[in-house]
């Protein structure tokens, strides 16, 4: 009997019958890398569980290993591949684009590769942005720069019929979408419309989220760079706070629903005394509220550093009622709100303070990828191309348990990843900051 919890089966456009132009081996031990077969599977859970009094691995949920297949679906000379980047920018987008183009070009000999400008908007009927022809020369140095050479945008993704009309009109038969949960949902819907029309167009996603809030992925590309880029702001806030009388350094980082950047940055630069994330609601006032705890810290140590994720404390103000072009709710600026609260609280308490507020959000998001993310993006991009050439569709490339895998988009977007406040990451953050485990009265 199967105890499967997840559906990790990948859809394909049809049987892969064409021999891959990539020369690899079928045998272990001959000193040459082997093709990956669809039957090569990776265990999803590396934890053991108890069965009949014995600890056993969970063997039922397995994911398809990513990599070049011996047989591919598309004849490379018939391929017109397109790439688009959607949502907010993130370190590493250009690295992924570069890797995708180079893999199509050098490994498979694909010569028609187009960049779609400004995400799904570039595929709408009235788009005035032409396709950008891509080849290894065009993408040669792009990894040096932050952002994406294609531009990115929100909105347009729900107009799937128009998008598929454009794919048909432009003879695009592979679409690589690089983006977050919204982009992936859009990619899935585009795949459904393609199926409904009986077309043979592969849609493959490369998951992007600076907030690191996608499930079924160890950590998203650009996240390591984001944390590394947040560190100097915390360091600056700490120096400013220490050099002032009762100084308070307040830093805001991104993280709408998940506080991973804040949590990891607190560990990377352990000057943080209070790390505030959406997953761990807190009170401002009262004996166990944030303000009282900051006061205690100021009276004991003469300075304090607060790192807040943008989605934390949203309940302190009524919802803005505004959304962006993709339908995401616009948040209050918790950084500015906290700065004002701290100011008036300490004034009322008769304690002189100096509050320095730093918001490095867009500096972090626009940074070029560091070496760790550059390596990661190069590998993600190539793996996305191997999936598409093999005719896999409505899937994405991910790294789970340090292995590259293909996952169905539907399963991957079925839940978001949040910092588990009973888990080891948050436990380690609390040990480092020495803040109370709860600041609720
Ligand atoms: N539920 C959905 N179904 C189909 N398309 C969607 C959906 N949500 C968003 N999209 C489309 O996906 C694209 C990107 O969405 P969004 O702006 O939310 O960014 P994202 O991909 O979630 O990345 P991030 O929010 O991390 O920057 C937009 O073109 C949007 O129209
Ligand atoms: O300024 P924008 O484009 O609305 O994006 C802000 C949002 O984008 C994200 O960086 C995700 O891409 C969130 O962390 C943030 O809330
Ligand atoms: Mg989103």
From TrEMBL:
Coiled coil ranges: none
Gene3D superfamilies referenced in this protein's UniProt entry, alphabetically: 3.40.50.450
A GO term, aspect molecular function: 6-phosphofructokinase activity
Chain sites annotated for binding Mg(2+): 181
Name of one Pfam family that matches: PFK
Key word Thylakoid present: no
Biological process terms in GO annotation: fructose 6-phosphate metabolic process
Enzyme Commission no: 2.7.1.11
Domain Phosphofructokinase: 81-387
Cofactor: Mg(2+)
Keywords, ordered alphabetically: ATP-binding, Cytoplasm, Glycolysis, Kinase, Magnesium, Metal-binding, Nucleotide-binding, Transferase
The keyword DNA-binding appears for this protein: no
Record-listed ATP binding positions: 88, 154-155, 180-183
Family the entry assigns: Belongs to the phosphofructokinase type A (PFKA) family. PPi-dependent PFK group II subfamily. Atypical ATP-dependent clade 'X' sub-subfamily.
Protein name according to UniProt: ATP-dependent 6-phosphofructokinase
Lineage per the UniProt record: Bacteria, Pseudomonadati, Spirochaetota, Spirochaetia, Spirochaetales
């Amino acid at each position: 009997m199967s105890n499967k919890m997840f559906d990790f089966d990948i859809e394909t456009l049809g049987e892969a019958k064409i021999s891959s132009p990539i020369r690899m081996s079928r045998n272990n031990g001959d000193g040459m890398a082997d093709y990956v077969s669809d039957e090569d599977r990776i265990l999803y859970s590396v934890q053991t569980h108890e069965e009949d009094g014995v600890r056993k691995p969970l063997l039922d949920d397995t994911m398809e290993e990513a990599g070049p297949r011996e047989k591919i679906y598309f004849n490379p000379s018939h391929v017109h591949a397109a790439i688009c980047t959607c949502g907010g920018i993130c370190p590493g987008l250009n690295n992924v684009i570069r890797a995708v183009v180079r893999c199509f070009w050098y490994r498979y000999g694909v010569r028609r590769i187009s960049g779609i400008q400004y995400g799904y908007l570039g595929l709408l009927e009235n788009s005035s942005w032409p396709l950008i022809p891509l080849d290894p020369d065009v993408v040669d140095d792009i990894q040096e720069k932050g952002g994406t050479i294609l531009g990115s945008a929100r909105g347009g993704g729900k107009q799937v019929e128009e998008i598929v009309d454009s794919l048909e009109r432009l003879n695009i038969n592979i679409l690589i979408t690089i983006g977050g949960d919204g982009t992936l949902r859009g990619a899935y819907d585009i795949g459904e419309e393609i199926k409904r029309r009986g077309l043979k167009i592969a849609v493959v996603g490369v998951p992007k989220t600076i907030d690191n809030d996608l499930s079924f992925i160890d950590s998203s590309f650009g996240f390591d760079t984001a944390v590394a880029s947040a560190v100097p702001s915390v360091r600056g806030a700490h120096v400013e706070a220490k050099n002032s009388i009762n100084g308070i350094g307040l830093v805001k980082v991104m993280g709408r629903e998940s506080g991973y950047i804040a949590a990891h940055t607190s560990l990377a630069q352990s000057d943080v005394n209070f790390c505030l994330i959406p997953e761990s609601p807190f009170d401002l006032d009262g004996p166990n509220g944030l303000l009282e705890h900051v006061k205690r810290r100021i009276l004991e140590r003469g300075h304090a550093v607060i790192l807040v994720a943008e989605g934390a404390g949203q309940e302190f103000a009524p919802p803005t009622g505004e959304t962006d072009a993709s339908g995401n709710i616009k948040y209050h600026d918790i950084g500015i709100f906290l700065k004002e609260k701290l100011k008036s609280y300490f004034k009322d308490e008769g304690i002189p303070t100096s509050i320095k507020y730093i918001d490095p959000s867009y500096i972090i998001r626009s940074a070029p990828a560091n070496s760790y993310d550059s390596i990661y993006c190069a590998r993600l991009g190539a793996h996305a191309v191997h999936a598409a050439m093999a005719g896999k569709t409505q899937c994405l490339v991910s790294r789970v348990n340090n292995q590259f895998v293909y996952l169905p988009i539907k399963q991957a977007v079925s839940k978001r990843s949040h910092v588990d406040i009973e888990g080891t990451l948050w436990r380690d953050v609390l040990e480092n900051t020495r803040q109370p485990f709860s600041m609720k009265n």
